[in-house]
Amino acid sequence: MDAKKSFQIGVLEHEEAWHFFKKIIGDGVESSDFLPIATEVAKKCGGLPIALRTLATSLRNKPQFVWEDALRQLSKPSSSNFKGVPATVYSTIEWSFDRLQSEDHKQTFLLCSLMGHNAPLELLLLFAMGLGLFHGVNTVEETRNRLLTVVSDLKASCLLLDGNTNKQFDMHDLISDVAMSIASRGNSVFVLRYKHDSNDWPDDETVKECDKISCFGMSELPDQLKCPKLTFLGMGSKDPWMKIPTNFFKETKNLKVLYLLGMNLSSLPSISLLGNLRALCLRNCVLGDMALFGELKNLEILNIINSDIEMLPEEIGQLTKLK
């Protein structure tokens, strides 16, 4: 989960934007009956290449009634006041999201938006397995194949990008912002990245309904995380000595996926209360006595990378569901 990087975003003039749009949907649109509709749809992108590419890719080879419906929806006033995202961009990305072919695609896309730039596909796989994202798959290999298929479809829709390597994926900043806005509807997702002010941690009322929380760069943590509905928690600190409070997990008993980056877990008794935890991913963490991990009876995935382990206790043998 790398820090955010910036992509250059230039606004194209009208003719240049239309040429860019037409290049994706095909020159045949010039002689089609819905040329006027296509030009109006292109105008809705406000000259922004990411909006033009996303929308053109979604509409390519679609019949006229789909174009007409798209224009109708894009002409509605945007319900978003999301800071930093132009309304035209928000509408086009939201429209593309709404047209994704399955709930698998939608949930994977929203999960990807929590993972930052050049995120590892293998980590996404662990998250998907822990959350039980795909129904009807039973093995790691089946889940991997389904995930790679969905990721490929999202790339074809221009909602995801290739990463620096073939083992990573990426997402444009604006698309990520819109995805997080969509995911945050109803306060079900809270995202905080690369902050250093402890006051940025939300109050209990804000997070109590959250289903997913992704917080990286925190300088302090609350004594207890009061999120009874929480299923996913990704958390990291740039301070390798920052400890998680003793009772931090006392009221997160529904948690299914826990991803910790650069945290000190030398003493964390409340982790034994996470009886529903299915995936535990630890990277660059300081680990003490791991005997309490043996209490995580439903754990299917234990992924530990670049972490300081004092000892691997025999209690790990009690985790009979590990895959």
From TrEMBL:
Q: Name one GO molecular function term.
A: ATP binding
Q: Which InterPro entries match?
A: Apaf_helical, LRR_dom_sf, P-loop_NTPase, Plant_NBS-LRR
For this UniProt record, the keywords arranged alphabetically read as follows: Nucleotide-binding, Plant defense
Reading the lineage from the top rank, the first entry is: Eukaryota
UniProt-listed GO biological process terms: defense response
What is the protein's name according to its record? NB-ARC domain-containing protein
Which species does this protein come from? Gossypium raimondii
